[in-house]
Design brief:
Two copies of one chain form a homodimer.
Chain A (H helix, E strand, L loop, with lengths): L1 E3 L2 H13 L4 E6 L5 H13 L2 E6 L19 H10 L4 E3 L3 H4 L6 E5 L7 H4 L3 H16 L3 E5 L3 H14 L4 E5 L19 H6 L2 H15 L4 H15 L3 E9 L11 E10 L4 E10 L4
Parallel strand pairs in A: 1-4, 2-3, 2-6, 3-4, 6-7
Antiparallel strand pairs in A: 8-9, 9-10
Helix pairs in contact in A: 6-7, 9-10
């Protein structure tokens, strides 16, 4: 596996691969790899000739009071894990390499961003689409892989690709979970022992909500209330939001129908966890 | 020459060319082709295996009081001219094809746009970078060709490519002129006979200004005054602006030094004309 730190070297690597007629799969990450990331890499490995993984903690998508500085990093371990997952090229630029001079272009997400995590993270998705645009231009992937745990991120990137005609197929990969159902996340390391025991209830509450939604006689409000009530009773965390929206448009719903996402975020002492279920309810004909 | 009207067909065309290992040159235009455009096409023909020309009058870059509706169009003639210039694929989408649904991304130009033509055309360059981004993603060119008559546009696109790491080399092509020095422009057809006779003085005034700048003892203000005074006396048009700025950054100058642009816009009854000279004055060591 090649480890590349500069834009110049990455462009040369990509040019060589393209000339050889190789199809490129890109797995953009912020590092501190866990099984979720490796599942993305494995799928990319199966579907492409060349797999590029990027590790870049993107300052542009962190707010001033967020955890950019203390976001967990372990590049040495990441390199071993990426190599073992069959990654051909690990791109690990520093901030100066990705943002060498002030950009003359600002990208703003005007839909799908003002819901869910976007409410408390103004500008977050503007930072996401900017770095994804840069990574797409640098790695020129045929396919790019994103986890569906960050379902809003996937919806926004889906809209980015469609709106600006990127020649990239984006692939959403199912959330990888611990045995007890907790979604894998780099931020799980911040949970206390007690919090870790209760955290799987986040997914359980969402499953209950989806069950209610599929019964067919519940309103949007009833589905949300059912979920909120379970999360309050079992997670031991403060609820940030529980929302039921259309997917991937993330529009508000008048009734429980079509392709939807039930998503929640809860706040533990040092870790904010998110999870979701994307599901479909057919309406009456 | 293939004439393609849909995004789907263009993507298929590009995919085939890429698979064959062909280098692609793109010439983005708004049509009503003149010798300036054909010079771009000729250069693209010499430097690439495959030449794609786009013709698209982009509504996003016209202000509400600008000439989108009456911008001159003549697709039949354009097809003949493009074919004769060696274009392989003429992409002529309609507005619905380029903007099929509301975009979830807004692109804003935060530098190089608030000078020269940008002052009176707020949002103009936002529209330019958006359509150029879409065309770059659709045609996937190795090189893209732009005329230096629109020097500010070239500077903005240069900044777009650098800021977002587009894998495209942009090529600026010298302005093509009538025998009397008037820059070729689709908008020249709106000049009256009398205006047409006086219009070449736009370039003459700029030449005088550059001459003054190169003497080495003139201030920025003196260079501009010299130019303004000539244009006032000879063009018979209202002066919109005369500016001397660094190039391509388009920053204000404290003294006449380095790579610069002397640019002017003048308003005739039905036609607004722009022209410029890009030149370098070495400072003292």
């Amino acid at each position: 596996m090649r480890v590349i730190k500069t834009v110049k070297e990455l462009k040369e690597f990509v040019r060589t691969e393209k000339k050889a007629g190789h199809q490129i799969g890109l797995v953009p990450t912020m590092g501190f790899l866990h099984e979720g990331h490796l599942t993305l890499a494995n799928q990319a490995r199966q579907e492409n000739d060349t797999v590029i993984m990027s590790i870049f903690v993107n300052p542009l998508q962190f707010g001033p009071n967020e955890d950019f500085d203390r976001y967990p990093r372990n590049l040495e371990r990441d390199e071993q894990l990426a190599a073992s997952a069959g990654v051909d090229c690990l791109f690990t630029p520093d901030v100066e390499e990705m943002y060498p001079e002030p950009s003359i272009i600002t990208m703003t997400v005007t839909a799908r961003a003002d819901k869910l995590c976007g409410v408390k993270r103004p500008g977050h998705f503007d930072g996401v689409v900017t770095v994804v645009t840069k990574l797409f231009h640098l790695a020129e992937p045929d396919k790019a892989y994103f986890g569906l745990k960050d379902a809003q991120q996937f919806a926004v990137i889906d809209g980015l690709v469609t709106s600006l005609n990127f020649p990239v197929e984006i692939v959403g990969v199912e959330t990888v979970r611990e045995e007890d159902g907790l979604a894998k996340s780099s931020r799980n390391v911040y949970l206390t022992e007690e919090e870790r025991l209760k955290a799987p209830h986040l997914q359980k509450g969402l499953q209950l909500g989806v069950q209610a939604a599929k019964q067919g006689d519940k309103s949007v409000e009833e589905v949300i209330e059912r979920t909120v009530s379970y999360l309050q009773d079992h997670t031991g965390a403060a609820i940030d939001y529980v929302e039921l929206l259309s997917y991937p448009e993330l529009d508000s719903l008048e009734k429980v129908q079509g392709k939807m996402i039930l998503a929640a975020a809860v706040q533990y002492r040092k870790a904010r966890l998110i999870d979701n279920i994307i599901f479909t309810v057919r309406g009456e004909c």
